[in-house]
Structure formats: C-alpha cells, structure tokens
Specification:
It is built from 13 helices and twelve strands. The chain is of the alpha/beta class and about 400 residues long. The structure holds beta-D-glucopyranose (BGC).
Length: about 400
C-alpha cells in the first residue's frame, strides 16, 4: 500500500487552547468570581485545574502528546489588581509560561483578554467604563513588553461578539445587561479596544503578529425555500460574523477563527433553534457540522489574511464521538486548504476539562480528563489520536 503524503504541511500549528479563568484556579479578583458567587454559574470556578501552578506539567503533557503550540490567556485582574498598579511578579509568571513553551519547541499563542475583567474595572462599568480603551491599551503594553522575545502570536480579544451577546443582550454573563443599546455600545467599544491594542503593540513590538479570535457561526436558513429564514440567516451572518471583522479591517495580521457549529435560522430575531433536528449535536446542544466549518473557512478567505483556527472542539462524555469530531473537522480544514484557504494552524478546545462559564464543570471538552478531586490528568483516546495526527501531519486512513 502506498503511504499517502502529508495532509498538513510541516510547521502547521497543531495545538490546544485554554483560558486563564477556566483553568488557573483561585482567580478571585475578577468579575466572573463575583458572578459565580452570586449564583450566575452552575458551579463556582474554585480551584479549576490549578493550572496557575501546574502549567509546567500541563505544557509537558501537551508536548508529549505531539502538539507544537499552546494557546493560553493572560489574566488581566492578576496583572493589574488595582488601576495603574502592574504586578511584576505576575508579568514574570506569564513570561515564564511562554518560555516554558519555547523550551519545549511549543509555539505560545497568547490571548490578552478572554472574557474576564478586573473587579475594579467592572465596578467602573466594565467594557463601557469611561476610559476603558486606554486602560486596555495600557494593560496590553505592559503584557506585551513582558512577552518581548518570548511570544510572537498575540490575540487581543477572544470572541468580542460573544461577550456582547451573553453579557449585554442576553444578560447571562457579567455584567448581566439585557439592553440592545448597551450591546451596540459594547460592540463598538470592543472595536476601539482592538484597534488601540493593535496600534500600540505594533509601535513597541513590530515583530509580533497581532490578531483577533473571532467566533464564527455558520448561519443557515432552516428551510431554504423560506424567504424569512434566508433573510434571517443573512442578517445574523452580517451582524454576528462580519460586522466586527469589517470594523477592525487593516488591523490584524491573522484571523483567529473559533468555530463550533452551524445554527439554523427561522427568523430575524435571536433565540433561534441551535441544532437541526436531523443532525447530531454536542452536549452543549450545538449541531455538529464539519460542512459548516468548511463553509466558514471558505468564507474567511475574502479577508486575505492567514487563518489560525484558534478554537474548535466538542463537549462530550462519549470519547468515540470526540474522536470522530476531531477527524471530521480536521478533514474539513484539509479540504479548505486544498482549495487554497490559507490555514496556518488548528488549536483544539480544550487541552483540559475545565470551567465552562455559566455551565460550570459538567461539559467536558478536554483532550485530558481532569479529576476534580485529585487534579489528576488522564489522556483520552481522542487526545492520543489528535497527537498522532499532529506528529505525522496525516489524517487516519478512511476505514
Ligand atoms: C470560548 C471558550 C469556551 C468555549 C466552549 C468559546 O466560545 O472562547 O471560553 O469554553 O467556547 O463553549
């Protein structure tokens, strides 16, 4: 039998992602901590995965699996616990994480903001606080100065439109607002945050590559023959997917794509069914659609920048389902690349079972299972399979 050539090029960034609040533990100076204590989440984050102290072990696990990159986030509330007071010890902690990656030939991919805010900023009005853009830019300066020479890929904000929807329109995340006007203002403010961060990182660190992590949903009309469904899908595609990217145009070197699912639309309002009754779905209720992934990758081509899949993954207690998910979604990436879509990497969400925001600890996304009592990490078969694909650059042969 002839061995097939590589499906992914040498140097393709195969990795896994986490975010500070979801894995570090004891992150008690941010808005989410208070939100959890007030009952906004099914479980409090508590000690999470103790990744703050266990990161050397976790990076070694990722490397041993065969991955060559790790996306993690910096916790603003640790770095700037009071307005204008930057903690050198915390900045050094994150530099050490990036260097620990480098020492093992793992490319660190840094997110500067992944949903949480320092408590002091949230008390002043959070994203909408007067002067929040300048505050964010100052934090980005301190953070990237500390990462100089240790990290190249910098993602300014994780999923700005998800933060807007969950926090300002649906009110199920901090700050718990349910106001279209506040949501519009927050979206515009997050454009300013990104643009300000992009400009100052570039001034000080011209070698860093700056991008965004954009959650992209593959909106499809539930019934193609129905004009209301079609218009609804087009409108949501514009508002949720495209508007933000257009607003930050010319201010990114790469696009981080967070893709999870197709959403079937029946009208112009939100609150549409998430999954089609005919398609399998994850334990989050999201429809499983590698075809939607391929469509999303193709759609991003028009932005003419390299695409880094910054998140893609599944919550499932059935690991066989996770294995299929990973192979099918990587197959979609390969198809898109063969058509010329410039994908430079894929970060599975997530390295570890971790704190899933309002859903608490029930959904399990990890390549590694984490025992909540002992903190023991156990690799899943899906983790091994993904590691094998990453180290050979080849997808398993079709059965
Ligand atoms: C977020 C992660 C989250 C994941 C799964 C993404 O929207 O960036 O923080 O855990 O989806 O829901």
């Amino acid at each position: 039998m002839l061995l097939s050539a590589r499906d992914f090029p040498e140097g393709f960034l195969f990795g896994a992602a986490t975010s500070s609040h979801q894995v570090e533990g004891g992150n008690d100076n941010c808005d989410w901590w208070d939100w959890e204590l007030a009952g906004g989440s099914k479980d409090p984050s508590g000690n999470a995965c103790e990744h703050y102290s266990r990161f050397p072990e976790d990076i070694a696990l990722l490397r041993r699996l065969g991955l060559n990159s790790y996306r993690f986030s910096l916790e603003w509330s640790r770095i700037e616990p009071e307005p204008g007071r930057f903690e050198t010890k915390q900045l050094e902690h994150y530099r050490e994480m990036a260097l620990a990656c480098r020492a093992q030939d793992v490319e660190p991919i840094i997110t500067l903001h992944h949903f949480t805010l320092p408590r002091w900023l949230s008390a002043q009005g959070g994203v909408l606080a007067p002067g929040s853009t300048e505050r964010f830019a100052a934090f980005c300066n301190a953070a990237t100065d500390a990462l100089e020479g240790a990290a190249r890929y910098i993602i300014t904000i994780n999923e700005p439109m998800v933060l807007v929807l969950m926090g300002y329109l649906d009110g199920v995340w901090p700050p718990g607002r349910k106001s279209p006007a506040a949501a519009a203002a927050a979206a515009m403010r997050l454009v300013r945050w990104h643009r300000a961060a992009y400009a100052c990182i570039h001034d000080r660190h011209p070698d860093m590559l700056v991008g965004i992590a954009k959650h992209w949903i593959d909106f499809q009309p539930l019934d193609r023959a129905n004009a209301v469904h079609r218009r609804g899908a087009a409108l949501q595609n514009y508002l949720f997917n495209r508007w933000y990217l257009r607003a930050i145009r010319d201010a990114y070197e790469f696009i981080g794509l967070n893709y999870y699912s197709t959403r079937y639309v029946t009208g112009l309002r939100t609150g549409e069914p998430l999954a089609s009754p005919d398609e399998p779905h994850t334990e989050m209720g999201w429809s499983i659609s590698p075809q939607g992934f391929e469509r999303s990758l193709r759609a991003l081509r028009e932005y003419r920048r390299p695409i880094l899949v910054a998140e893609n993954g599944i919550a499932s207690s059935d690991d066989a389902q996770r294995q299929r998910y990973i192979v099918d979604h990587l197959t979609a990436v390969r198809h898109a690349m063969r058509e010329g879509v410039p994908v430079i990497g894929y970060q599975y969400w997530s390295l570890l079972d971790n704190f899933e925001w309002a859903e608490g600890y029930r959904p399990q996304f990890g390549l590694f299972h984490v025992d909540r009592g002992t903190q023991e990490r156990t690799v899943r078969q899906s983790g091994r399979l993904y590691g094998e694909i990453a180290s050979t650059g080849r997808l398993p042969a079709e059965p």
